[in-house]
Amino acid sequence: MNRLVEGLRLGDRYVLRERIASGGMADVWRAVDDVLKRDVAVKVMRADPDNEEIFLERFRDEAQHSAALLHTNITTVFDFGEDDHRNYLVMELVEGLPLSAVIREQGAMAPEPVRSILGQAALALATAHEAGVVHRDVKPANILVREDGLVKLTDFGIARAIDAIGHTRVGEMLGTPNYISPEQAVGQPATGASDLYSLGVVAHEMLTGNRPFDRGTPIATALCHVNEPPPALDEDVPEDLRAVVASLLEKDPADRPDNALAVAVMLGMAPPELADVDVDADVVSGASSGYVVLPVTPLTPSTPLEAVSPPDRAPADIPTMAAAPEELLD
């Protein structure tokens, strides 16, 4: 097997240019599609004899789940293949930063950019849930913010179809402790309501610059989600936005919003008449006919790029991030 290096060609089509992300399961490279003459991101599964089978199952699941989700706010998957016993996933490049980097460099964000990012992520989740897919790992590192304010939800590596058996190892808890829902923390299956809880944690972190549940160790942090209320938000956060975050962070899934589309409506990202659209009967249980894919509402002129990008960074300096910045897992 050839080592991954600049200039290596995969599938007799994709030429690797530079590695732009790295994680426990895969490396992500900027590459050139020689057939369509465009830049792409190529996520290549890393060889791991001890976990190869389960990693490959998750990798294939990511390809299938992502390719089926066509929405402005979800990263697009172009191709999946195998070359010299090496599996790879080809997807769009996103010009911008992961939300985790924005928060790390900027700290607490103003309410309007938070509202826009949160609403766009909710629209992405609405599409995934309508397709019967639960993300299970919603967090800032998996939300990319483009330089024009457009948001892309990415990394469906541990997503699960509602009627599928998850690929887990004995004793393994999927998800990231800082953003995991209470029901996942106690070993219950993740649902669409679990994704909404994680989105609420992300919203709280955007508004404060700090993770609301962080006790230093994975177990202590996970139990914190189960037993402790989130810290109160500042009074200068608009009341309606505080109400949305509070509803997302309800401990009981039944007390959270009915579905992700309802969250988008609450944030003004979708027409109010869609508030009662029955995306699913049990928050997420499968597809319902007549679902409307909504156009994204980007940041308005009153919320400039600087509001969602690190300060002192010109748009031309914003790096290209792949659709799976796994080195930023946190």
UniProtKB/TrEMBL annotation:
Would you tell me the protein name for this molecule?
non-specific serine/threonine protein kinase
What Enzyme Commission number(s) does the record list for this chain? 2.7.11.1
Does the record carry Ion transport as a key word? no
Boundaries of every Protein kinase domain copy = 14-274
Is Amino-acid biosynthesis among this UniProt entry's keywords?
Answer: no
Stretch list, region Disordered: 301-330
In this record, what's one Pfam family?
Answer: Pkinase
Query: Which controlled-vocabulary keywords does the entry list?
Result: ATP-binding, Kinase, Nucleotide-binding, Serine/threonine-protein kinase, Transferase
Q: Which PROSITE patterns does the record associate with it?
A: PROTEIN_KINASE_DOM (PS50011), PROTEIN_KINASE_ST (PS00108)
Q: Which reaction does it catalyse?
A: L-threonyl-[protein] + ATP = O-phospho-L-threonyl-[protein] + ADP + H(+); L-seryl-[protein] + ATP = O-phospho-L-seryl-[protein] + ADP + H(+)
GO terms of biological process kind: negative regulation of fatty acid biosynthetic process
| Broad enzyme group | transferase
Q: What GO MF terms are annotated?
A: ATP binding; protein serine/threonine kinase activity
